[in-house]
Amino acid sequence: GLLAALVGRGALAQVTVGSLTGHFGRIPQQAARLMVRAGLVHVLASDAHDVAQRAPVLDVNGALTAEQYERMTSAVPQAILAGQPVRSS
C-alpha cells in the first residue's frame, strides 16, 4: 500500500532482475511480480556491483512482456535522464 501511495504522488520505483527471477527467494519474487502487475514499477535494475562477482544481467526469463521490458530498460530511463515526465504504465 505504501508503494502505491508513493507512486500515486509521482514517485518512481524499480526492482532488480534477481527479485523478478527468484534469485533472492520466493517472497521477494512474489512481491516484485505483484508490484509489476499493479503497474508500480518503472525501472528494471541489474543489481550489478562489479563485473566479476555481480555482473550486470538483465535477462528476466519471461517474467515481463516485451513491452514492459523495453519500457523499464529503455524508455523510462531515457525519460529520466532527459528530465521528461514518466507516465504511469
Span of the ends, CA to CA: 17 Å
Multimer state? single chain
> Sheet bearing the most strands, described?
2 strands, parallel
**Major sheet: arrangement of strands:** 1-2
Q: Radius of gyration, Cα only, in angstroms? A: 13 Å
Order of helices and strands: HEHHEH
What is the percentage of strand-forming residues?
5-15%
Number of strands: 2
Residue-averaged pLDDT, rounded? 91
Structural class determined from secondary elements: mainly alpha
The low-confidence parts are: none
Q: Give the helix proportion (percent range).
A: 40-55%
Determine the number of helices (DSSP H or I, runs of at least 4 residues): 4
Label the overall shape: globular
Offer a quick outline of the entry:
With 89 residues, the chain is mainly α. The chain has helices at 2-8, 17-21, 26-37, 66-82, and strands at residues 14-16, 43-45. 46% of the residues lie in helices and 7% in strands.
Q: Could you characterize what this model shows?
A:
This protein is globular. A two-stranded parallel ribbon has the order 1-2. The protein is built from four helices and two strands, in the order αβααβα. The chain has helices at 2-8, 17-21, 26-37, 66-82; strands spanning 14-16, 43-45.
Task: Please write out the topology.
Blueprint: H1 2-8, E1 14-16, H2 17-21, H3 26-37, E2 43-45, H4 66-82
Parallel strand pairs: 1-2
Defining traits:
single chain, 89 residues, mainly alpha, two-stranded parallel sheet, 4 helices, 46% helix, 7% strand, globular
